[in-house]
Each structure stands twice: as structure tokens, then as C-alpha cells.
Design brief:
about 450 residues, alpha/beta, Amidase signature (AS) enzymes, eleven-stranded mixed β-sheet, about 35% helix, disordered C terminus
């Protein structure tokens, strides 16, 4: 189920939104995968479908979607993956309003690692989210349910959030696309913060083209969001057919590649890296050390205190109702002083300069999305260390204000998906998506056209 396919069928009269809603509710599985927390009544979604205008006037006419349950919708409770925290929102998040006005049909709210703290999909009292390929493996998190719902074809797209990789890791493990926009490009008003200065609303779809279509609807300045940015006049949200020879693609130097002993993951990444030479005119290795150093700041620095600040009153009153691993992580925020904070801010600025110099030589960087995968049991045995391993290639992205898209490129023998992430500088959302689509096409054997985009 893809947005662009549905829109074509609607325009040609081959399908109606009501038929799509019927198909969604026939497909929904609220128990086996634990992907959903709350699902809207079917009759209310059908009423929304009946009130739609036309495909010509609404860019997401009749397209079903889901939202992570840290994003407000006025008709449903918001839990952030914690029943004791649940509240009835007075208003709907800006991004959800924009999607509904564009004709999209909200189906419900999806499961997540509690308070968006985790990359595993196991830290939820609503149940462990199961990988669509093999339920013994993790789905990835924290936007686990949104990724699973898209991967199962229950909805055409879903919103997640991404602070440390939550919109990319579950995309990789469930073989879909996960787009993390440039910070501030999409409003976070009405989103329960994890780290308010870093949070992004992310998009899960089947293709990079569809991800950009959704972003084109939800991007824009929101004066009620203090971290919102005004879009540049030349901002574009479409794939274009410029030759991929226009672009230089970087990959991390071998000494900075980390697969945690997983030779299968190493082999799948090396296969993609070898394909880059055929897909793009120039590929080079880059110094990845400043990116690795930046990643260490996220959970080894005062941004953990920002996580605590977001839910400080709740933690003080009801810490015993939290998932124990999440409570353990968030509680570490108390140890950081103002001096620690400013030292880390200064260190981050130094690292930003070092990373920016890497992008002087390349247009994008392609890394593994994760260096390995784990079973649910393995994560339960070592919940913090193995979660940390999954963030090796993701934790630095929001700190550095990069745009990123995760695309599927393979599968582990035991089933879970494997993929790579395309990284670009802030504002390069369309570029990373276009390069990502090219890589996705090559990896899937569907290399029909070039999809790199030029900076205009």
C-alpha cells in the first residue's frame, strides 16, 4: 500500500477511499505484532472518507496513516508508551492537522519505546513490538509500531519521532524507508518531547518518493513551535532525474566501521558500498571520527538531562510506574551540572566544524543504519549496552543537524531487514531522499532511472 499508487487509483476511478478503509481494517492486527495502542472506530474513519473533497484538491486524498503515540490527536489519548502518563489532549498536533487537511485518513496510534527512549521496540508496557520478518527479533525503536504498521501494509505511511535514530532503526529492521527531516523543518508542536532541542517528526513509507510527498505536506514554519524554521525559498520536496554522476558519495573509512562482531552485517554493507561505485560517478572514504565522537555526547552528556526535564514532574511523582530501563536512563540526567552542559555545548560546536569539513568534499555520506541486529531475548539480557550499539550510526545525526533517510538493502539470514542511511547537511532532505531512492533501486534490482537531485 503506497500513497502514490493509491492516489493514481483514486484519480482513475479504480478505487474509493471507503474501499481502502475496508482493506485497512481487514488487515489490522492489534495483537500479534503489538504495533497498535489505540485504533479509531471504523465508522468514524469511513465518515472522514465520505467527507473528502477530491484527489485534485487534496494531495493525500484517502491515504490511510498512523501516528506514534507521543503525537497528539484530540479524539484519542496520548500515552507516550506509559499508561500512568496518559492524558486527553485538548488539541491535535500541527502535523496531524496538516495531514488530515490534505485528505489523509488517520487510523490510530502506534506502540513505542516508552517516552521515546530506546532503539529496540521492547520498552513498552503495551507489549514488545515484533519484527515483521521474524517475531523472535526486535522491531527497532522507539517508533516501533509505526514502522511495523507500514511494513505490514496496514497503513500507507506513518509518523514517528526521531531523536537518536528512532525513525531510522525500525525502518531498517522492517525493510521500509524512514526519512528524518532536517531539524525544525517539520513542526513538533503537539509532540511529547524526548529532547526538545533535537526532536524531529519522522516519516515511514515504502519509498523515498512517498516519504517526500508526505514531508511536502507537513513541512513549514509553525510559530507555536519554538524550534521551527522557515523554509528556504528554493526548498523542494521531489525526486528529480539528474544524473547520479553529479554527486560525490562518501563512506566511512574502514577503521571506523563497527559491526560488533556481526560478519553478516559487514558483508551486506560491503556489498552496498561496492554497488555505489557503479551507481554514482565518484565515491570516496571519509574521516568518520568526528561523527563517532559526536554520538558519544548524546547519552554521555547533558542531553540526558534534557530527557529528564521533559518529564521531570512525572518522574518525581511516579517513577515507579515507568519501564525500569527507561527510568534508569532518564534518571542519569540528574548528574549533569550547568558547567557540564556548557562544556558539552562547546565540544559539540567544535565537532560540528569538523563534520562540516567532511561535507566540503562530499555531497552525502552512506553508512549502515545499524551495525547488527538482536533477538528480543538478547536485548532483555543486555538492555542498555545492546541498545547503545544500535545507535553507533544514528546518535550523532540530530546533534549535527543533518538530514537522513534509511533505505532497505538486504535481509539477515534469520529474517530481519538490513539497510543503509544516506546523510546530508541540514536542508538537503530532497537530496538524501533522491540518493536513497537510487540506492534502494539498485539494491532491489529495480534500477530504472537515476534519481539524484541538484541544489538549485
Amino acid at each position: 500500500m503506497h500513497p502514490t499508487t493509491l492516489l493514481t487509483e483514486y484519480r482513475h476511478g479504480d478505487r474509493t477511499p471507503a474501499q481502502t478503509v475496508d482493506a485497512v481494517y481487514d488487515r489490522l492486527d492489534t495483537n500479534q505484532t503489538n504495533a497498535w495502542i489505540t485504533v479509531r472506530r471504523k465508522d468514524r474513519v469511513l465518515a472522514d472518507a465520505a467527507a473528502l473533497e477530491s484527489p485534485a484538491d487534496q494531495p493525500l486524498y484517502g491515504v490511510p496513516f498512523a501516528i506514534k503515540d507521543n503525537i497528539d490527536y484530540a479524539e484519542l489519548p496520548t500515552t507516550a508508551g506509559c499508561p500512568a502518563y496518559a492524558y486527553e489532549p485538548d488539541d491535535t498536533a500541527t502535523v496531524v492537522k496538516q495531514l488530515i487537511e490534505a485528505g489523509a485518513l488517520l487510523i490510530g496510534k502506534t506502540n513505542m519505546d516508552q517516552f521515546a527512549t530506546g532503539l529496540v521496540g521492547t520498552r513498552s508496557p503495551y507489549g514488545v513490538c515484533r519484527n515483521v520478518h521474524n517475531p523472535e527479533y526486535i522491531s527497532g525503536g522507539s517508533s516501533s509500531g509505526s514502522a511495523v504498521a507500514v511494513a505490514r501494509g496496514e497503513v500507507a505511511f506513518a509518523l514517528g519521532t526521531d531523536t537518536a535514530g528512532s525513525g531510522r532503526v525500525p525502518a531498517a529492521f522492517n525493510s521500509i524507508v524512514g526519512l528524518k527531516p532536517t531539524r525544525g523543518m517539520v513542526s513538533t508542536r503537539g509532540v511529547v518531547p524526548a529532547c526538545a532541542s533535537l526532536d524531529c517528526v519522522s516519516v515511514f513509507t515504502g519509498t523515498c518518493e512517498d516519504a517526500l510527498l508526505v514531508e511536502s505536506v507537513i513541512a513549514g514554519y509553525d510559530k507555536r513551535d519554538p524550534y521551527s524554521r522557515r523554509l528556504a525559498a528554493d526548498t523542494r520536496f521531489s525526486l528529480t532525474a539528474h544524473s547520479p554522476t553529479d554527486w560525490t558519495v562518501g563512506t566511512p573509512a574502514p577503521e571506523y566501521l563497527e559491526f560488533f562482531g556481526d560478519e553478516e552485517a559487514r558483508g551486506m554493507y560491503e556489498e552496498v558500498r561496492d554497488q555505489l561505485g557503479d551507481a554514482f560517478d565518484e565515491t570516496v572514504t571519509v574521516d568518520f571520527e568526528p561523527f563517532v565522537e559526536t554520538a558519544e555526547l548524546l547519552y554521555g552528556g547533558p542531553w540526558v538531562a534534557e530527557r529528564l526535564e521533559a518529564i521531570e514532574e512525572f518522574v518525581a511523582a511516579q517513577a515507579d510506574s515507568m519501564h525500569p530501563v527507561v527510568e534508569q536512563v532518564v534518571a542519569r540526567g540528574e548528574q549533569y551540572s550547568a558547567l557540564d552542559t556548557f562544556r558539552s555545548f562547546h565540544e559539540l560546536e567544535r565537532l560540528k566544524q569538523a563534520c562540516a569539513s567532511v561535507f566540503d568534499a562530499v555531497d552525502v555520506i552512506v553508512t549502515p543504519t545499524t551495525g547488527t541486529t538482536y533477538t528480543v531475548e538478547a536485548v532483555h539480557d543486555q538492555p542498555v549496552d545492546r541498545n547503545s550499539n544500535l545507535g553507533y550510526y544514528t546518535d550523532y545525526v540530530n546533534l549535527l543537524d543533518l538530514a537522513a533517510v534509511a533505505v532497505p538493502t538486504g535481509r539477515f539470514v534469520d529474517g530481519p531487514g538490513f539497510g543503509v542511511t544516506v546523510l546530508g547537511e541540514g536542508g538537503d532532505d530532497a537530496l538524501v531522499a533522491s540518493v536513497g531512492q537510487r540506492i534502494h533501486d539498485v539494491a532491489s534490482g529495480n534500477d530504472m532511472h537515476s534519481t539524484a537531485v541538484s541544489r538549485s
